[in-house]
Amino acid sequence: MMHLAESLNFSGRKVAAACASVPFPALDGSSLPDTLCIYQQDVPWKLLSSCREKKVSSCFAQSVVLRGICQGNQPRSLLHACESTEQVLQHYLHTLFPGTLSTSHVLQEPCSTLPPYPQFFSSLLTRQGFLLDKPPSYSSAGVESIPVLAALQSSPILHTLLYSLYKDLGRMKTQRWASFFAAGVEQDDFQEALQDLRTLSQCYEMGFEADESEDEADSD
C-alpha cells in the first residue's frame, strides 16, 4: 500500500485517500457498463479516509481495482461498445476525471465472503453479492461472494484534512505534555514536523477550491 501511494504522488505529495464500494452496487443480471452509466455525475464508491466527502472532484492520480463483475454485450452506449472490462473501467475514469493519471485493474474472481466473514449484508443481495429490486421470496443461505471496487487517490480533498490536522496540532499546549517530550522528542523537532505538515497540505492546493477549504479549516 505504501509503495502504491508513493507511485501516485509527485510534486511533494505523500498521502493518498482510500475509497471503496463493498459490495459494488450492481443489479443482479446487469453488466459493468449498465452500472457505470448510472454514475455519470458521481462515483460508485465511498470515501474511507476522514476527509469531507464531495461529489466528483478533480484528482491528481489514482489507482482503481475492480473485481467480480463482467463487461456485458449489448452496445447501447460508448461504455457498452468497449471491447473489454478493462476498457470499460478506463473509459469511465477518463470521462469522470479528465486529465488525471488513472490506472485500473480488473480481476474476474469476486471477493469470497464465506465464513468466518461476517454476514452483515442486506437481504437485497443475492448469494453472489448483486442487488435485487425487492427482497426474495425465499430464505437466503447468506452471501457467498461480492463484487468489489477499491480506489487509492492523490486528490485535493486531502488539503483540508492535512491543514485541519496542522491547525489542531498547532493549538496543543505542548508544555502540558512533558511525558511526550521526555520520550525523546525535541520541541524544535516538533515545530519542524508541524511546518512540514503545513507544507505537505499546500501540495494538495488547487485554486479557489483550496482557498475555500483553508478558510473553512480556519473557522473551525
- Name the helix and strand elements from N-terminus to C-terminus, one letter apiece: HEHEEHEEEEHHHH
What characterizes the major β-sheet? 5 strands, mixed
Structural class: alpha+beta
Helix tally equals 7
The chain-level mean pLDDT equals 84
List low-confidence stretches.
Answer: 208-214
Q: Please state the CA-atom Rg, rounded to the nearest Å.
A: 21 Å
Total separate domains? 2
Question: Strand fraction band?
Answer: 5-15%
Name the strands of the widest sheet in spatial order.
2-1-7-3-4
Shape: globular
Number of strands: 7
The percentage helix is 25-40%
Terminal Cα span: 32 Å
GO biological process, one term: mitochondrion organization
Protein name: MSTO1 protein
Organism: Galbula dea
List the keywords.
220 residues; alpha+beta; 2 domains; 5-stranded mixed β-sheet; two-stranded antiparallel sheet; 7 helices; 34% helix; MSTO1 protein; DML1/Misato
What does this structure look like?
This is MSTO1 protein. InterPro entries: DML1/Misato. It comes from Galbula dea. This protein is α+β, with helices and mostly antiparallel strands and 220 residues long. It folds into two domains: 1-154, no CATH class; 159-203, no CATH class. It has seven helices and seven strands. It has helices spanning 2-8, 32-38, 85-96, 157-170, 178-182, 187-202, 207-219, and strands at residues 17-21, 46-47, 61-67, 101-107, 111-112, 145-146, 148-154. The strands form two sheets. The chain has a five-stranded mixed beta sheet with strand order 2-1-7-3-4. A two-stranded antiparallel ribbon has the order 5-6. Helix 4 runs antiparallel to helix 6 and helix 4 (157-170) packs parallel to helix 7. The longest helix is centred in the last third of the chain and has 16 residues, at 187-202. The protein starts with a helix and ends with a helix.
